[in-house]
Amino acid sequence: MARPHLALALALPGSRASRDRAERLQGATRRPRRGVFAIDNRRSPVVLVRPKLTEQVQGLVAPYLNIHTTAKAAGVSPSALRLWERRGLVVPTKTASGHRRYTQDDVSRIRDIRRLRSLQGLNLAAIAATLGVNGGGPARGGLPEAVRELGRRLQALRARTGLTLRQASRKTGLAPSFINSIEHGVGQPSVASLQKLARCYGTTVSGLTARRTGAAGKVIRAGRYRVLPMLGEGIKIEQLAEGRLAMDCQRFTLAPGAGSEGQYAHEGEEFIHVLSGRFEITLAGRERYRLGPGDSMYFKSSALHAWRNPGSDLTALLWINTPPTF
């Protein structure tokens, strides 16, 4: 039970005990603990006071987040941040002892990378082309002319169908900014994202990249196949037959780790024959098949499918679609 004279002293506005208590409360408001937010009741409306987390970094004193806090805030793993740093997508500052320090701008960029990676199915090379590396903007002159020409064709098709960027985004599930970056030649589509755009505009990947002039012959000599524009890092697609045919015949060459970077579906049926290397394909998000040299596979194109080269060597495939809806 409080003593009467002490309770009276605390209640008196001018007493020493009252002043000491007020100073302690003010000090607690001015000096929030590390890692928590304090409410400043001295102002109206109520505001949050951010804790002072600073460190001497390359001669500057600035707010920072460490790698674990940053990873948690952006929804990724610390190992992903280290990988993206090696690829030049994220460039944190470092202390004299080598500890990484991230800003709020870094967190925003990491969230953009995660979105392009998980939702748009882009590989790291395509993300670098879209966002730029080492903190810079997109590298406008860095993509091949064939990829920039592909972007111009996509823009013309979208205009012909009367779709806005937002309408095309809703139909394909791709971000408007990503579609815009492809159209302007600063973003590189993956196989999955290009197939979605082609289908949205009423065409196919093969038709979208076909030559505009020249008659198709019955025979295409070795080394003279049309090569589709680069659709992701380490992917080469050669068109083995041209013209208005009932099937789409292609040869895929995949570098180790290269893949569709997302799943897609379309009408028709597909046949795959592995010429060399290893190949992995997943149907409907749950059926996974691993193929080796000499193995073949047949499935309905309407099943969502995603694929990649899981091996350490180049993979070569004979891939046939009928009708030509890829």
Radius of gyration: 29 Å
Tally of contiguous helical segments = 11
**Helix and strand composition category:** alpha+beta
Helix content: 25-40%
Strand order, largest beta sheet:
7-8-9-15-10-13
Mean pLDDT score: 77
List keywords for this structure.
about 325 residues, alpha+beta, Multidrug-efflux Transporter Regulator, Chain: A, Domain 2, Jelly Rolls, six-stranded antiparallel beta sheet, about 20% strand
Could you give a quick summary of the protein structure above?
With about 325 residues, this protein is of the alpha+beta class. The protein has helices spanning about 5-10, 15-30, 65-75, 80-85, 105-120, 125-130, 145-160, 165-170, 175-185, 190-200, 205-210; strands spanning about 40, 45-50, 55, 60-65, 95, 100, 225, 235-240, 250-255, 270-275, 280-285, 285-290, 295-300, 305-310, 315-320.
Describe, in plain words, how this protein is organized in 3D.
- Helix content is 34%, strand content 21%.
- Helix 3 crosses helix 5 (104-118), helix 7 crosses helix 9 and helix 8 (165-172) packs across helix 9 (176-183).
- A hairpin with a 6-residue loop joins strand 1 (38-40) and strand 2.
- Among the domains are: 54-118, Multidrug-efflux Transporter Regulator, Chain: A, Domain 2, CATH 1.10.1660; 145-206, 434 Repressor (Amino-terminal Domain), CATH 1.10.260; 234-322, Jelly Rolls, CATH 2.60.120.10.
- The strands form 5 sheets. It has a 6-stranded antiparallel beta sheet, with no helix packed on it. A 3-stranded antiparallel beta sheet has the order 12-11-14, with no helix packed on it. It has a two-stranded antiparallel ribbon with strand order 1-2.
- It is built from 11 helices and 15 strands.
- Residues 4-11, 28-62 and 134-141 have low confidence and may be disordered.
- The chain is of the alpha+beta class.
- It has helices spanning 4-11, 16-30, 67-74, 78-86, 104-118, 124-131, 145-161, 165-172, 176-183, 191-200, 205-208; strands at residues 38-40, 47-49, 54-57, 60-63, 93-94, 100-101, 226-227, 235-239, 248-254, 269-276, 279-283, 287-291, 296-300, 305-308, 315-322.
- It is globular and about 65 Å long.
- The longest helix has 17 residues, at 145-161.
